[in-house]
Amino acid sequence: VVGWQLQRRGANDEFPGLAELPAMQLVIDIGVAHGTPTLYRHFSDARLELFECNPEYYPGIEKKILNRRDAVLHRLALGAEDIDAVELNVNGEKSSLLARTRLTDPNMEEFPVVTVPQKRLDSVLQAEAMPRPALLKIDTEGYELEVLKGATGLLDHIDYVITETSVLRRFEDSYAFEEIVNMLQGQGFSVREILSAPLDRDGRIRHVDLLFERAQADPVARTM
Description:
The chain is α/β, with parallel strands linked by helices. The protein is built from 5 helices and 10 strands. The chain has helices at residues 37-42, 58-66, 121-124, 144-149, 177-186; strands at residues 26-30, 47-51, 71-74, 77-78, 83-89, 113-119, 134-138, 160-166, 189-196, 207-214. A 7-stranded mixed sheet has the order 3-2-1-7-8-10-9, sandwiched between helices. A 3-stranded mixed sheet has the order 4-6-5. The longest helix is centred in the C-terminal third of the chain and has 10 residues, at 177-186. The chain is globular and about 45 Å long.
């Protein structure tokens, strides 16, 4: 895409583009795992709405985040529907509600499964109670489009979206790259920046972290 640049970044590099955003009043972090320190550091005064469905991370989130920030932890999965129980394939930070393809799991290994509740994001958070500007971050191992489908009642109240977006087919029954872009464009967002595009051992880009902004966002805010 014209105007996009890919750069190699180390695992500890920050997303420099975040420094150009206005101060967020709300950060919604979906797929917390060990946390997203770069976001929390850049937006140190923001209220945090945290969503994590893997119970192994709850003690760390409580100790490292809830005890230090204005934050709430929602212990559930997010998707396009409210469902009493869905199956989570537990594999640390690679835990997913979807099965992996041979691209990322050549041996098609079986992982422990736990059942967790699933909600729509707009069933959990109320748009009228959300302070602005607000940023939504999603990293759900191939389930990002389903999360967005369950957030349509809130997206008008979101100013920026950061989402891990698959480029190659890493998961069964997941989305194509353009579906994420098209869906968010249809909701009034445009791509602002590729924050990261890590290369795998074979030199391929399997996923990228995309930053979207509301298409009508105040251009002055870009330099605040």
